[in-house]
């Protein structure tokens, strides 16, 4: 599919610009979102979008993202390119179905592997907190693929919360995924010494959230923290993030023992900017 879009883009924009477009394309259900490269005019993207709609019959709507994810809800500014002027769709991932609105709720198919990777680490009976749950993707995929006792799933965005409620029903994980609307940095304080795993999938608040996540951990458990790093290469990015969190842990009195059991580059998010995840095991003092 990506190859087909690449060919269409090559025909319309030429090889050099086509390369920019296909690497910045996200497909969410029957909607395509093209991150607008600065060197390509919106009118050229409109022609490309029309052509994509003609050739890809399942595709119904094409939008340009004209900003990166921004603000506390992490939303991109969108400009309509072609097809239906609709931003709501059904997005499928790992056999689960999610109702989302790309204009109102954060959604990234680029996190797909992370969603299932974390779900595979969960052991039966775990209590989990997902601090920044969005429309519920991590939480629902965990509930469907593992056997957690509950996944407390917090988001501050009213729309994300509303879609999460609907997605819990759609995927029949009521009573396991527990949705909460509000500020995770405050709500997590209710769960001191309570859970075996915490997810922090919001790099902008990760370092602030981390000590709170530590306090929520029962005797021992895992924290998956997503962070950004500006670095010359991937190895440097991994080392930078690991150093930051080792320092945060080693200066924290709540931790008796720890190990960083996993670290990986989730994706590139710009020139020399990477998203990194650390899987941290901690034993409480
Ligand atoms: C990167 S998105 C999460 C993506 C989601 N985990 C997924 O896999 O699709 C970050 C989310 O954090 C939410 N958020 C931002 N600040 C928050 C806060 N203080 N408390 C709770 N949620 C917050 C945003 O509304 C957004 O939905």
Question: What descriptors fit this protein?
Answer:
285 residues, Rossmann fold, GMP Synthetase, Chain A, domain 3, 9 helices, seven-stranded mixed β-sheet, alpha/beta, 33% strand, binds S-adenosylmethionine, 2 domains
Give the names of the bound compounds. Answer: S-adenosylmethionine
Helix content: 25-40%
Largest beta sheet: strand ordering: 9-8-7-10-11-13-12
What CATH architecture of the largest domain would you give? Answer: 3-Layer(aba) Sandwich
Strand content: 25-35%
* Biggest beta sheet attributes: 7 strands, mixed
The whole-number mean of residue pLDDT values reads 96
Describe the model:
The protein is an alpha/beta fold. The chain folds into two domains: 2-86, Met-10+ protein-like domains (GMP Synthetase, Chain A, domain 3, 2-Layer Sandwich), CATH 3.30.300; 105-284, 3-Layer(aba) Sandwich (Rossmann fold), CATH 3.40.50.150. The protein is built from nine helices and 13 strands. It has helices at residues 2-13, 15-22, 42-55, 112-121, 137-145, 158-170, 184-187, 206-216, 234-250, and strands at 25-28, 31-35, 61-65, 78-83, 88-93, 96-101, 127-130, 150-155, 177-181, 195-200, 217-230, 255-270, 273-284. Strands 9-8-7-10-11-13-12 form a seven-stranded mixed sheet, sandwiched between helices. Strands 1-2-3-4 form a four-stranded mixed sheet. Helix 3 links the parallel strand 2 (31-35) and strand 3 (61-65). Helix 1 packs antiparallel against helix 2 and helix 4 crosses helix 5 (137-145). The longest helix is centred in the last third of the chain and has 17 residues, at 234-250. The chain is globular, with a radius of gyration of 20 Å. It starts with a helix and ends with a strand. The mean pLDDT is 96. Bound molecules: S-adenosylmethionine (SAM).
């Amino acid at each position: 599919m990506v190859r087909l879009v690449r060919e269409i883009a090559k025909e319309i924009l030429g090889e050099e610009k086509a390369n920019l477009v296909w690497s910045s394309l996200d497909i969410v259900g029957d909607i395509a979102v093209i991150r607008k490269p600065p060197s390509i005019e919106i009118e050229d993207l409109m022609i490309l979008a029309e052509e994509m709609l003609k050739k890809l019959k399942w595709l119904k709507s094409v939008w340009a993202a004209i900003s990166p994810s921004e603000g506390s809800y992490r939303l991109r500014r969108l400009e309509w390119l072609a097809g239906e002027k609709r931003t709501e769709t059904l997005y499928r991932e790992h056999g689960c179905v999610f109702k989302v609105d790309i204009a109102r709720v954060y959604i990234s198919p680029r996190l797909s592997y992370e969603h299932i990777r974390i779900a595979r680490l969960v052991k039966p009976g775990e209590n989990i907190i997902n601090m920044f749950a969005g429309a519920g993707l991590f939480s629902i995929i965990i509930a469907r693929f593992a056997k957690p006792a509950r996944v407390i799933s917090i988001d501050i965005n009213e729309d994300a919360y509303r879609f999460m409620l609907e997605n819990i029903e759609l995927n029949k994980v009521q009573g396991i995924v527990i949705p909460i609307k509000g500020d995770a940095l405050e709500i997590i304080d209710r769960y001191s010494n309570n859970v075996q795993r915490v997810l922090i999938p919001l790099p902008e608040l990760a370092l602030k959230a981390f000590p709170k996540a530590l306090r929520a951990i029962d005797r021992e458990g895992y924290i998956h923290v997503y962070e950004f790093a500006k670095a010359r290469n991937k190895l440097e990015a991994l080392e930078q993030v690991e150093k930051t969190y080792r320092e945060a842990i080693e200066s924290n009195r709540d931790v008796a023992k720890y190990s960083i059991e996993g670290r990986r580059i989730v994706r590139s998010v710009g020139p020399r900017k990477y998203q990194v995840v650390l899987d941290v095991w901690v034993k409480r003092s």
